[in-house]
Amino acid sequence: MSIDPSGSSPSGPQQRAGRRSIVRPAVTGSQRSSAPDSERVAEVRARAQERLHRQRGTLRPLGWAVLFVVMLGSANSDPVPGLHGKALAVTLALCAFAVTLLIAVRDGFPERSVELQTVVIAVMGAAGVAIPGLQPKGASEVAAGVAVFMAITRLPFNAAVAIAGAVTVALGAVTAAASSSSAVAAGTLVTVLVGVIAQFLKQSRESQDRTEILLAELEDARDEQARAAAIAERGRIASELHDVLAHSLSGAAIQLQGARKLADRERAVPPLRDAIDRASELVKSGLANARQAVGALRGDALPTVSQLPALIESYKADMILDVTLRIEGQERTLSADSSLALYRGAQEALTNVARYAPSACTTVTMRYEPDRTKLSVDNGASATPPREGMGGSRGLDGWRERIERAGGTISAGPTETGWRVDVEVPA
To answer: Same domain, yes or no, for 146 and 270?
Structure first.
C-alpha cells in the first residue's frame, strides 16, 4: 500500500525523500509474513488470534455433541460395533473418527503443521465415509459432514477442496450402493451445504482480520506521513536558523574580535575591554547554542556521558590539561536529558579549568548511585595564571538551566586545594 502526502507539506528534495521513506509496496504471501509488523499491526494480529481461539472454544462443545450423535447412531445400527468381522471394521472406523475429531477440536491443533492437519482430517474423512458404508442406516452424513467442515475451515484452499470433494464423492458412492438416488442426492447436498457454510465462515473471519490489519497499516502510514512532514519542517527551520541566525552571530563574533584588537591597540580602559569580552562570550555561546539547535532539528545525535573519555582526551590534547576520569558504581543508560546535562557539565567545567587553572591537576568522577547519578570535577591549584582571551564564565548560567530542566542540582565552590563542581541528576 502506498500513501503519498498531500500538497500541504513543504516541497523540495527533503519532502521527496520523506515521501519515498513512507511508501509501502503491496506485499502478499511470504513477502508479507517476512516483513516485520509494527506494534499496532502486531496488536491487531494478536486480537484476531484471541478472537479465533474464542470462536473455536465456542464450537468445541458442538464437536463433542457430533461425536456423541455418531456413537449413539452407530450403536443403534446394524451391525453394532464389535470385535469380529464387519462389527470390528465398524469399531475401527468409529475409533479413527473419534480420535481424529478429538485431535482436531483441541485448541493447539491449528498451530500444528499443515501436513499433520491434512493427514488428520483426511483420516477423519475416510472414517466418516466408512461408517455409513458399513452401517447404511446409521448417522451416515454427520461424520462425513464434520470432516468436510474441518477441511474447509482449517486447511489451505487446494487441500481443503481436494479432501472435501473426495469425501463428498466417496459418500455418494457408498450411499448409492445401499440406498436410492434420492438418499444419494440428500447426502451430497448436506455435505455441499456444510462446505459452503464453512467457506462462508472462513472468508468472513479472514475478511474481518484483513480489514483490521489494513486499517492498522493505514494508521501506521499516516503516522509515518506525519513524521516525514515534521522532519521536513524541522529541516526547513534548521536551514533558516543556519542561514540567518548562525551567519549573523558569526559576523558579530568577527566584529567583536576586531573591536577587541582595536581596544588593545588604542589602550582602551579595562571596563571597555571587559564589556567587549562579555559580548564576545555571549555571541560565542549563542553561536554554539544555535549550532546545537540546528543539529537537534536535523536529527543529529546529541552527546552522552558515554563520550566523556573522548571529551577528556580532546582537552588533554588541545588544552594541555592534566585531567583523569574515574567511574564509580555500575554504569547504566541514563535519560537523554540527564546524559546531555552531565556531558555539557563536564565540558563547561573543563573549559573553566582551562581558562582559570590551566596547569591544575583535575579529576572528573562519574558516580552511579541507586537513585542518582553524580558528576564531580575537582581541580587543584594552578601554578600558571589564567588564560586571556577566553571570555567570562557566562556558560555556567546555561549549564545550570540545562541541569534544572533535567531535574538535577548543581553546586560549585572553592576547596582547600582548588575548586570543585558537583552535579546530580535523577538515575
So the answer is: no
